[in-house]
Amino acid sequence: MKLFSFWRSLATYRVRIALNLKGITPDEVIDINLPQGKQREASFAKINPMMAIPALIEDDGTVLFESLAILEYLDETHPNPPLLPKEPKARARVRGIAQIIAADTHPLIVPRVREYLAHEYNIDEAGVMKWGNHWHTTSLKALETVLAGSPHTGRYAQGDQITIADICLAGQAVGAAYFKADLAAFPTVKRIVDEVNKIDAFARAHPLKQPGAPASV
After folding, report:
1. CATH code for the structural domain at 2-81
2. Strand duo 28-31 + 2-5: pairing
3. Which of 17, 120, 132, 192 is deepest in the core (most CB within 10 A)?
4. How many of the other CB atoms lie within 10 Å of CB of 103?
5. What is the percent of the chain where pLDDT is above 70?
């Protein structure tokens, strides 16, 4: 198994958490430096034409991309511990929470979007940061409402079982910190994030624990 990664990639962070939870160690982790534009090189574009990470290549050559698809693939091929509840309504809730982050928020703040805002619309760094803060704050408000107002929320986003919703929340928290969106205003989100960050599989996957990461950001 090969994992195409970059230390700062929040989508790859999700996959690293899942791999750790499942006890899977990739044979090779290949660095795709996003600020240097390595994702746009022809060799990687053949692997993922969207030129985004993560990408995962299985031993038989199967190429997987998009973090949520990879998470569900890992859950189906390595079912313990499960990352989705068995009950259909609970599964839908977990997927919905995950998609608020991975589908509705994260795509708006990835490097290619920030670069486009800067290059095509001449938005300065402060403006790009304001953009990122806005979308993170918007989703955090929604997540807080969903989590705080539900009897299904427990120690984690869905009861006391770690799910893909918690994996996505961990990444959301890192992104929020980068864009100066304070989690203190969202106590339920913060409580769950603090809980999952105590788990070794989450701690080892953190962006700042990866090769090439600075001591702090």
Report:
1. 3.40.30.10
2. parallel
3. 17
4. 14
5. 99
Alpha carbon distance 117, 49 (integer Å): 22
Spatial separation of the C-alpha atoms in residues 25 and 27, rounded to whole Å: 6
**Count of other CB atoms within 10 angstroms of residue 146:** 19
Region 72-99: what's the mean pLDDT? 98
Which H, E and C letters describe 98-162, residue by residue? HHHHHCCCHHHCCHHHHHHHHHHHCCCHHHHHHHHHHHHHHHHHHHHHHHHCCCCECCCCEECEC
Which single residue is written with the structure tokens 């869905």? 158
Reported as a pLDDT band with limits 50, 70 and 90, residue 214 is confident
Beta bridge partners of 161: 158
What mean pLDDT, rounded, does the chain reach?
96
Q: Is the pTM of this model over 0.90?
A: yes
Distance CA 190, CA 78 (A): 29
Kindly list the domain boundaries of the chain, sorted by start residue: 2-81, 88-205
25: its two tokens? 């160690």
- Give the right CATH number for 88-205 from 3.40.50.970, 1.20.1050.10, 3.20.20.70, 3.30.420.40: 1.20.1050.10
Half-sphere exposure of 140 (CA within 13 A, CB side): 29
Q: Which residues fall within 8 angstroms of residue 64, CB to CB, at 6 or more apart?
A: 55, 56, 57, 58, 70, 73
Peptide bond into 54 cis (omega under 30): yes
